[in-house]
């Protein structure tokens, strides 16, 4: 969840200012930035002291045109914006190659706070029985480099295959689970991938009809 917004009528108040707390309909994972506006209905208001948490926000609304309170219920409009979360996965076409290997650079749409763990693969093509392996190179907060190698032949390829990638955690059981799921979903095994700086190769990888 990166943003939420809403509106609400404020209660009447005999005092010049009123402190309120509003709970987000859906909690945030991190603390969002909140803006609050009160629509004027003949009176003027100022919002101050906004304190936000992942679950709720607190603020104070005060009348600025009079030291008195208010006898009507003004409308409050609020918006909470969480930090933009980079996409956890992506893909890009890598084009053809006249050699058996091709170096590929992937740039993330949004930089990460630190270099992530990447799982990457290229699906083979059923029509031409072509399979590929992916060997990762450098990984940083802005992207990564890898080498795609054709495994069924020593020649290059004239197709435009797609390199897929996803960010994974450091749980080895999770890595194995992902590999198994990819084999089932794609109909062929994943020939190569990288967890941090360790390459897992599948020398027996082949595409099955």
- Please provide the count of β strands: 14
Query: According to CATH, what is the class of the largest domain?
Result: Mainly Beta
What class do helices, strands and sheet pairing give?
mainly beta
The sequence of SSEs as H and E is EEEEEEEEEEEEHEE
- Summarize the biggest pleated sheet: 3 strands, antiparallel
Q: Beta-strand percentage?
A: 35-45%
Radius of gyration: 27 Å
What count of helical segments does DSSP give? 1
CATH architecture tag of the largest domain? Sandwich
Give the overall pLDDT as a whole number: 77
The helical percent reads: under 10%
Ends distance: 41 Å
Low-confidence stretches: 171-209
Q: Based on CA inertia axes, which overall geometry fits?
A: rod-shaped
From the 3D structure, determine the CATH topology of the largest domain: Immunoglobulin-like
Q: Give the strand order of the largest sheet, numbering strands 1, 2, ... along the chain.
A: 1-6-3
Number of individual domains: 2
InterPro entries: H-type_lectin_dom_sf
């Amino acid at each position: 969840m990166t943003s939420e917004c809403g509106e609400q009528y404020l209660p009447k108040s005999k005092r010049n200012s009123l402190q309120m707390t509003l709970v987000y309909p859906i909690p945030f994972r991190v603390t969002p930035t909140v803006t609050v506006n009160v629509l004027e209905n003949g009176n003027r208001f100022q919002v101050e002291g906004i304190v936000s948490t992942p679950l709720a926000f607190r603020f104070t609304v005060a009348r600025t045109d009079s030291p008195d309170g208010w006898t009507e219920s003004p409308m409050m409009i609020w918006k909470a914006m969480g930090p933009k979360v980079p996409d956890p996965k992506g893909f890009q076409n890598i084009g053809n190659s006249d050699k058996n290997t091709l170096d590929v650079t992937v740039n993330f749409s949004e930089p990460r706070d630190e270099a992530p763990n990447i799982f990457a693969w290229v699906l083979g093509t059923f029509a031409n029985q072509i399979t590929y392996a992916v060997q990762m190179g450098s990984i940083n907060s802005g992207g990564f480099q890898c080498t795609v190698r054709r495994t069924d032949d020593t020649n290059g390829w004239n197709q435009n295959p797609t390199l897929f990638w996803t960010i994974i955690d450091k749980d080895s059981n999770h890595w194995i689970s992902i590999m198994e799921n990819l084999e089932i979903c794609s109909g062929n095994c994943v020939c190569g991938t990288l967890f941090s700086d360790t390459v897992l190769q599948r020398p027996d990888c082949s595409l099955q009809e």
